[in-house]
Here is the input.
Amino acid sequence: MPVFYGVEIDSRLMLGTSQYPSPAVLAEAFRRSGAGIATVSVRRESGRDQAGQNFWNLIKDLGVAVLPNTAGCHSVREAVTTAHMARELFETSWIKLEVIGHSDTLQPDPFGSIEAARILIEDGFDVFPYCTEDLVVCERLVDAGCKVLMPWGAPIGTGLGLNNIYGLRSLRAHFPEISLVIDAGLGLPSQAAQAIEMGFDAVLLNTAVAKAGDPVLMAEGFSCAVKAGALAYAADPMEPRDMAAPSTPLIGKAFL
Amino acid sequence: MKILINDTLIEFHGNTLSQLLVQAGYGSSKVATAVNETFVSGVLRDLHMLNPGDRVEIVAPKQGG
Here is the structure.
């Protein structure tokens, strides 16, 4: 099972908490998913609104680890301040660092992410950086002190799956000691299984479950997928080959 | 003095960030704060003196991906 900053999590599935039809569906989807980590955020709240407290109560009842994010931040300062507010609110040093560099694709800003990671690690955070599969950027993030990398499979919310298999395989091979999580872009359980089969430690998704026609059923589908992927990875899969090879022995075949 | 809370201008009749939270109705709500884009922890709110025109951000736990 994956280990993040010394904490072993009893699932390879991490689930976002946004966009569900209702809090009840969110809670049931989590139960059926078996997810071990819930991602959350911080947002403005008015004085009379207790929505934040109600949401926090719901998350605590799930009994999962909490990973706050800096979603929507476009600058280092914004991300760092948001991380500090999240640490106080959620009482965890874990932070999913997002510094967005491009508004259309929501591609992370590699320069800002590296700078923010350095600052936050110096401030005592355990940083989970949202990044791409760019090896050089990932090396810089690891140099900064990140022990987890979270490359996208595809842009956030697209459901396109793993867009750059070669790049992701390279990343896995290059960082055998770093926990790698596919973050964003997954739309189907088969894509999650593929990521885990490749040796990724976990997957993080939100929209694929929350926006499914039946989020609870889809959550269970992803739960099965990551388990299947982990079994396949542990089983040492056969090497693909170009030529056909009969699986039924030819010896003893009747002469007809 | 005039203070901006989450982009809304209000007339504040106290001195500290803690007093502002009480006046604005946050009471004991689970919130985190920043003043002029710098984080101010809960334990420092009693000591943090506000100035006219300060921009205060008050956030709470929310859904996220």
